[in-house]
Design brief:
Elements lengths: L7 E3 L2 H11 L6 E8 L5 H14 L5 E4 L6 E4 L9 E5 L3 H10 L10 E7 L4 E8 L5 H20 L15 H4 L4 H6 L23 E8 L1 H13 L4 H17 L8 E7 L16 E7 L8 H18 L1 H16 L5 H13 L7 E8 L13 E7 L8 E8 L2 E9 L5 H18 L2
Parallel strand pairs: 5-6, 9-11, 11-13
Antiparallel strand pairs: 1-4, 2-7, 2-12, 3-4, 6-7, 8-14, 9-10, 13-14
């Protein structure tokens, strides 16, 4: 017998932040992922699995009610009548997957996910578009793993229903593991909107979003891993150094300009042991600022990046951010969105023409061992899509599957120069390749 799914869920602080950023025109609301297969999928079983995913992870079957005080996730009553999964013919899986994720997505009117089975002559692909209000990049990966498990289970038991995941969707448990003094430290102003002196020039109107991307092939990626060991650097450090060098080449900031880059920070590792998590947006951002000298070698840029990332890791700032977000959630829990809207609008008003927030979000490795759709549907490729930013922002998203590094950026074709976006990604790849040539 199917388990009762909650009719509503509380809205957490990070979800409020993402909604206000979407509402204020900083970004579009969706993330996404695609999986390519060696063979065909059972489209009917995928359709059922996607529907059950919205039961297993209840937030995915909700609409975001922003006007409520406090805002709330409200279960969509007619989920069984909605078409959550489409079947489309395709001769270009990467292009069609990107186009599907970029299609308009309104988290306030319907479920927080939709899917497509892309069918080719001899093989298929599966694409998910998921609301960034409900999940972050790590949760997108987890959604793929859960979906693959549901798909396999339905092959053996077509009438099976999943257990509803009622795990934690916020970082409240972290607060109970910290000292009172650390809680007070965490109350200092956050750097959600740090001062910035560069960005992607464009017009401030929304149009049709799209993604641009490049792959770094496994041979080069493995060389980068070895290069990192020699220089005491992580792959993320190396990627950040390459991204910085590409941004400098493409944007040509003034010598005295502030050049911060925001990085995503997954807070799940800070959770107390034994805490079970549901799909959620449990992440934050932190900021690095590197000044490049013209003509300096890649190793010098990497050294500066490593110094800053190492300092940040030693400082315990991640824990303080987690505590701060948890305390902010307590303060905002019974309130509407007015305060956050004012803060977001004020931040937007301080940005000059052509200045904005440049981001790097590294989703990390998509575990091939957990991405199992059965013996007849072997996974050959998987990659994630990050936020679609509006000018003057830009988000470079990285994901890795079987040593293939996918770099992509979501932009708005009416508002952002596509050639500039592609130049930034191409430049990043060129820097990575050049570092290990």
């Amino acid at each position: 017998m199917p388990q009762q799914v909650p009719a509503s869920l509380p809205v957490e602080f990070t979800e409020r932040v993402v909604y206000t950023m979407v509402d204020s025109g900083f970004m579009h609301p969706q993330l996404g992922a695609a999986i390519e297969f060696e063979g065909h999928l059972d489209a009917a079983r995928v359709t059922r699995a996607v529907r059950l995913l919205a039961d297993a992870e209840p937030v995915l079957g909700c609409r975001f009610v922003a006007a409520a005080v406090p805002p709330v996730w409200e279960r969509v009553e007619d989920l069984d009548e909605l078409k959550l999964t489409e079947v489309r013919g395709s001769s270009d899986f990467p292009g069609d997957a990107a186009a599907f994720v970029a299609e308009p997505f309104d988290p306030t009117t319907g479920p927080q996910l939709r899917a497509a089975v892309l069918t080719g002559p001899s093989r298929d692909a599966l694409v998910l578009a998921i609301s960034h209000l409900a999940v972050d990049g790590d949760a997108v990966k987890e959604a793929l793993f859960v979906l693959s498990g549901i798909y396999r289970k339905l092959e053996r038991e077509p009438d099976w229903h999943p257990t509803v995941n009622d795990g934690a969707r916020n970082i409240e448990p972290i607060i109970y593991e910290t000292k009172i003094v650390d809680r007070f430290k965490a109350l200092r102003p956050a750097d959600l909107f740090p001062p910035t002196g560069w960005g992607i020039r464009g017009v401030s109107r929304q149009g049709s979003p799209l993604y641009v991307w490049r792959n770094v092939e496994p041979t080069t990626f493995c060389k980068l891993v070895r290069y990192g060991r020699v220089h005491d650097a992580t792959v993320n450090d190396i990627l950040l150094a390459a991204y910085y060098r590409s941004l400098y080449a493409a944007l040509k900031p003034k010598p005295d300009a502030l050049t911060p880059v925001q990085l995503s920070c997954d807070l799940r590792s800070l959770m107390p042991e034994g805490i079970r998590l549901a799909l959620a947006n449990i992440s934050a951002t932190w900021t690095i600022s590197v000044v490049l000298d013209p003509g300096e070698p890649f190793a010098e840029t990497l050294k500066c990046v490593v110094e800053q990332t190492s300092d940040w890791e030693r400082s315990g700032t991640a824990a303080q951010k987690a505590i701060g977000l948890g305390l902010a959630d307590r303060l905002q829990r019974n309130k509407g969105l007015d305060v956050l809207r004012k803060q977001t609008d004020a931040a937007a008003g301080k940005l000059g023409h052509g200045t904005g927030y440049l981001n790097l979000t590294n989703v990390g490795v998509i575990d091939a061992g957990r991405l199992d759709f059965g013996a007849h549907s072997h996974v050959t490729s998987a990659y994630c899509f990050g936020p679609i930013a509006m000018p003057s922002g830009f988000v470079l998203t990285a994901s890795i599957f079987k040593d293939c590094l996918r770099l992509s950026a979501g932009i708005d074709r009416q508002a952002t120069d596509i050639k500039l976006a592609q130049r930034i990604i191409d430049g990043t790849v060129r820097e990575l390749e050049g570092a290990v040539a």
